[in-house]
Amino acid sequence: MFAKRLLQKAIHHSQHAVQRGSLTPEDLKLRVTVHYGIPSTASILAFDSIQRLLALATLDGRIKVIGGGGIEGLLMSPNQLPYKYLEFITNQGYLVSISNDNEIQVWSLDSRSIACCLQWESNITAFSIVGGSHFMYVGDENGLLSVVKFDPEDEKLMLLPYRISATSIGGNVCCFIQLDTLVLYENSGEQLNEQNVAGFSFPDDQPSPIIGVLQHSSIGNSVLIAYANGLFLLWDVSRGQVLFVGGGKDLQLNDKLDEPSRRVDDNVPIDALENSLADKEISALCWASSNGSILAVGYVDGDILFWKTSITASGRGQQGSPSSKNIVRLQLSSSEKRLPVIVLHWSGNSRAPNNCDGQLFIYGGDEIGSEEVLTVLTIEWSPGLEVLRCVGRTELKLHGSFADMILLSSPGSAGDDPKVDLFVLTNPGKLHFYEKTTLSAIIGKSKTDSKLPVSPLEFPAMIPAAEPPMTTSKFIKLPIGGFSTKILSELASMKLSSTEIQGTSANWPLTGGVPYPLPTTKDDKVERVYLAGYQDGSIRVLDATHPVFSFICHLNGELEGIKVAGLSAPVSKLDFCCATTSLAVGNECGLVRVYDLKGGADEKNFHFVTDSRREVHTLPQGKGPQCRAVFSLLNSPVQALQFSKCGVKLGVGYGSGRIAVLDVSSSSVLLFTEAISNSSFPIITMIWKEHSAATHGPLESPRHSGAKSAINYAEELLLILTKDAKINVYDGSAGNVINPRSWHLKKESIAISMYVIESGISVSGSPNEKHTQESSQNPTTKSESNPGSGATGSNLHESQHHSSAEETRSTEKFLDSYVLLCCEDSLRLYSVNSIIQGNNKPTRKVKQSKCCWTTTFKIKERDFGLVLLFQSGVIEIRSLPDLELLKESSLQSILMWNFKANMDKISSSSEQGQIVLTNGGEVAFLSVLSNENEFRIPESLPSFHDKVLAAAADAAFSVSYYQKKNQLPSAGILGSIVKGFKGGKMTPTMDFCSTRESYCAHLEKIFSKTPFSDSSSPALKNAEELTIDDIEIDDEPPAAASTSSEEVKEEKRTERQRLFGDGNDDWKPRTRTTEEILTTYKFSGDASLAAAHARNKLMERQEKLEKLSKRTEELRNGAEDFASLANELVKTMEKRKWWHI
């Protein structure tokens, strides 16, 4: 009856002209609001050991920053170029990157944007940040090492005068060896040739690029510079001197080291070089000792050389050069064709007595064509560093092609922990973590166990997209204050998900970042949910209210205690009903699962419904979501799922072209049709539309027995679209077809989606629109408004007349609506009236090519828009209903993505203009509207920089260098204390700075001038010979000379000038020591007096030494105690954020 009545009205209904859309380009701003996952093009790792943050630079101009607890962010560079260097300014909230166009970019983690940048004129080939400061070493292709400073207050990059060129080094210094200590003497202006410096060779016409810059592990003022031609040197930045030179083409190594005792692993041949180092290009290097006495250098030919930087010579004045006894070669393979050594990292064992034992992590150096692995060698040296032994070799199998690796030190450790954590990045965008205990156990295995499989921890993604593969998703905004909001909020508070499911792990090292401030009221409810279905049949439900998502629940593919074939098949479709909190899940095997998220202990029945039978099972009691029914009607993939507005009915469309209507409340089948399309094309879209009608029967009000009134109810229409662009309209209540013939296009086309757009003509300014909507949602509203009134005949007549008029308005409103048909090659707009009558002439038509996904959005319930995604990656935004193009963008410009297959199947959106796109392991949430701020950005964004933790770390830093000083040899301690008590000028070094500020000020003083600005070395000319007698403890400062004495000195000087000339000669009398004066005058001829004086002098020296030793011990104990407290504070604050305090 209803279908016939609607068809008759459609025939006599006149269609209004299509209105122009009110959406404007100014209303649109396509941008990324939330990003999860690791980009597939990630290539470089960086780690902040204090803030516990990990950064990954990509090949397309993006930087991913990952913290703890779901805190992630994406930094987008305006230039889509690969990055070649990435490093944190540790604990300062800044990240430095260098792109392939040699632009140095400093990113502010607070603002998530570029704070400043500096374009380098030449090709940057090496980069390193000076630890604990804002200074950076930049090496280029011309062999020039420059220093750049970042000013955090003004956020500016400045190029400082301090520059080291290869020619300036080769022409100003030469090396000599004496008494285990390298002493340097300036050439006194004489130009040295290249042979005067051991191994030094820089052709003027072909400058060698700098390919590596390493800070010395124990001498903070030293830096190692490596050149592509195989030469490297250790440079003292404060004195402007070379401390060590290695490599070069003139070094011949002839000593054999092939004794059997020196080989413990035939796979790691260790011997000395027999040929010269000519044509050996450096490809990687790292310090291979805790004190910087051993350097490991990897070469393009696959060799690894260990260089001893502490070498001896016979005496002062003899030209020093590294001998063959101080260089050892290591080869991972005996093959002639080997891969270059790409990466070298060292993990030292501070417990070793020689500070040179540890593990060497190597990528490369193996035979070409061999399995791609990461090799870990356990190295041990003999006490005199004469023999190198490899006592273990472990090969870690990579999960993809290698991209980068990084070693993590524990918070508060000195960096020489014998057990370290390891991050390995492989392509495409896979991050694996080897925890220190597991890695140490694997490394400690014997040779026979070295290739046993190792299971590292995978990156615990908040929204997994690749492992397991995501197959479908849905993004839903919940009604404000609705029933679903309350239920999901309670469900989220239950913390039902396991630790692994929540994306965290007890051993996972990334804990950095500070979430948005916790709400102070109890009204913080779940406003949005994100549903994701996976290939293993599981579903994840996440709270997407804030930019940091949180888990609500995880639903497995299997049911506990019940076996149903096909339940674990890949999820193909999802739908959620806000009115009943019911979740429908369809899979590739045709099964439909219905979950009740609110649960309930009193509801324990499970229904299994097929086309021929119905089974009822008892579910085990438990909290959280419960599966109430599984429908298995057809072995065909579920392609469409749609709840009716009230949530009682569920429409199911299959890949075979058949449809079913299910009654969720009774777990029964209301309608199951044959294939709609003759060719059995899949159902791709199902839309429920309510059409208000009225009934005048004697229905009783449910709350007031006996009160009879006419109530409103909704006739439900079901619009169905198949893949071949045919549209059918069904009566959702009786299952009758309203349009006897399927509506179809004249020309064959592949349909993508269909939408029903309500027209604003008949509803604009309607005073009863809101009331009508409320009445349809709550049938008792009308009777509750007049609880005490009776239903007289006149009132009943007026009610019937009102209902009839309302039905007419509802019918006109529905017939004035539009049906938007989106196909691969076109967009077509039809009136509902035309669809019902079978008229295929469109009201609007736009031709296009290869569209693959669409969605609609609206503003203030009136302004509609359409988003289209094309296979080329182009994104268009059009207004509705006129289909006018407003804005065009692309995946490449927004996310640096290219379109991939099946991207359309796992994309979703909300009606408020929020789009969710998935690509590989990435999930990106985009906002379309310029004034939309559902995530409350920026106030709700998490902070990457924990200022409380940074303050605690600075407190520990203030004593760390003094602690290092106490670990140096006693001679160094004694010398510094002597100069401190004497008040003499001490050459400042990093080891003796008490705070980070003073350390940075010290570096600023060094780098603010050129290294060769002085004509002579003040450190050598003004070196003061000190003895134990020079120590003055608790002495009063000498009294200042009076004015009269100065006048006397001036008068004497004037008389001397008259006696000896004009006084221009720089003549000074020789200064005699105290012992010389006493021997000449006081003790002449009396040996006993001289001996007694010497004895007293020795006793005085002994007392001074005892006092000095006591003070030294007090200072050492104080520094160690404070350092221990500071380190404990760092560890504590790393775990406890400010909102826990």
TrEMBL record:
Keyword set, alphabetical order: Coiled coil, Cytoplasm, Exocytosis
Entry-linked InterPro entries: V_SNARE_CC (IPR042855), WD40/YVTN_repeat-like_dom_sf (IPR015943), WD40_repeat_dom_sf (IPR036322), WD40_rpt (IPR001680)
Presence of the UniProt keyword rRNA-binding in the record: no
One Gene Ontology term from the biological process aspect of the record: Golgi to plasma membrane transport
Biased composition (Polar residues): 774-797
Entry superkingdom: Eukaryota
Biased amino acid composition, Basic and acidic residues: 798-808, 1046-1071
Acidic residues compositional bias, start-end: 1028-1037
Annotated segments matching region Disordered: 764-808, 1028-1071
Subcellular location: Cytoplasm
Coiled coil residues, start to end: 1091-1118
Domain V-SNARE coiled-coil homology: 1076-1140
GO molecular function annotation: GTPase activator activity; myosin II binding; syntaxin binding
Descriptive protein name: V-SNARE coiled-coil homology domain-containing protein
Organism whose genome encodes this protein: Cucumis sativus (Cucumber)
Lineage: Eukaryota, Viridiplantae, Streptophyta, Embryophyta, Tracheophyta
